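Might you be able to review the protein record set out just below?
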Amino acid sequence: MERFGIVCLITSALLAGCTTSLRSDHVYLDTKPGPGIVYSLPRATFDAEVVFFVTGCTRNPGQDITLEYELRSATIRQYLTPDPAEIHRIPYNELNASTKATALDIVMHPSGMIKSINSQVDDRTAQVTSAIAGTVLNLAQGYVSALSPTSIMSSCDADLARVLERRAELLRSIQVAESNDGVLKNAQKRIDETSDKLNLALSELDEANASKNAVLIQRLKGEVAKLKAGLKTLQGNIKGKELTAPPLVAELATIESALSLKAMVSAWTPTATTPATRLSVPQSEFVRSFRTAIQKPVNFQVTGNFVANLMVQVESSPKRPESMRSETGGSGTTGQGYSGLVYRQPAVGTIKVSTGYTSLPSSHQGGVSLPQFGTKGSLWLRNRAFDKNSVVAEFNADGSLVNMSFKSDAQAERAALAAQELSGTLADLMKIRLEIVSAQASAESEAERKARQSELDSIDHQINVVTRQRTLADAVQPSKDPLDVERDMLKKQIEVEKLRRELALILGGGAQ
């Protein structure tokens, strides 16, 4: 019984020394330094610039003015930053075990996210569409073509009203000018086509003169004269005429620049509790920029702010997965730990920019990838005794999983094979032992019997070692059916009985 307890103790110790696992510990502000590689999950961060465009005024009871406005343009740049709430450490020192050799090869993205594990990959971030770093979204761009009602323009200061009215005139004039310019452009196109035909006819006439083909020369001369007359008529029709739309468009661009004001926000990161932010600038700033643009000493009083709302809407907001079980922190860690390498599959959503003005609302939106709203998972890897598992994975810069492969050799099959090999070794050692016992029985001298006893002690020691190894192999195999256990015991008894009879025959022959 005491010997059985020792064998069980040795088996448990060997089993503990044969187990390794990949794990990630959550790192917090007060986490103590410890061995391992630190990585972070990425999050989407935005820089935004909006241009407010003044379209009119509202006169307040106190004679102050509130400016009416729309969004002229909205440009948003999206890039990736490390999420400070999702920093993890892999204690790779725990992958060491007394009977296993484990290699961990990790490549990182600049954002601090893992690019690959146990795989050497090319940097294809620029070619992967879901790698969103540096994406620029032009949600609104171009002229605000809508004409404001005359009532909201007449409520403005005289200089501002005059500029707004001039803009309205230009918008109407440009429509007429572009229509007239279309006729002039078509006439110029006909001139270009006639000029090309004339040049071709002149070239053919030169060739005909060189070949002295009188008939061809006469025909080409007539064609050249006709083309020259037609070209002269066409050029006379547009003489002194110019395109009228371009200078009007240039003047409109100058006026609209004077009626515009920018607002910016940098490094905004949406979260579940703050999915929106505001871009705001006092309307008094417009008075100063307008004064500079028109180079006149205007000084009217305005109240209020220009406001644009920037927000993200997640198409799906998954709950935090319950399946990620918590484990005890490793050496030098505090807080939550996860089995495996933690990653996060980004959520898909939209980013929307809109004015804070309700009577003339304007809004624009575009699709974005939002890693911080995604679902977390973990890549599991554990190797116990006789296990040979491996995982290979690659990730985009936004944390999305590109590909993953997991290989596993069946533990039961490997253990059964090991047990079978040990059984064969044990049978061979038992046969050798019988031969030594037989030789010892037939020894004629005391010195020879002592030599045989020394060999016998050595074989017994080897049998003891193999028996322990077989006990270890049996311990990691799945539990057997009771009938199978009984059948195996009977087979062992039969094997022992055969060996006992062979020994008796050998000893009996030696006695004779």
User: Anything to note?
Assistant: Confidence is low (pLDDT under 50) at residues 1-17, 120-134, 142-147, 323-335. Residues 158-211 form the longest helix (54 residues). The two ends are 40 Å apart (CA to CA).
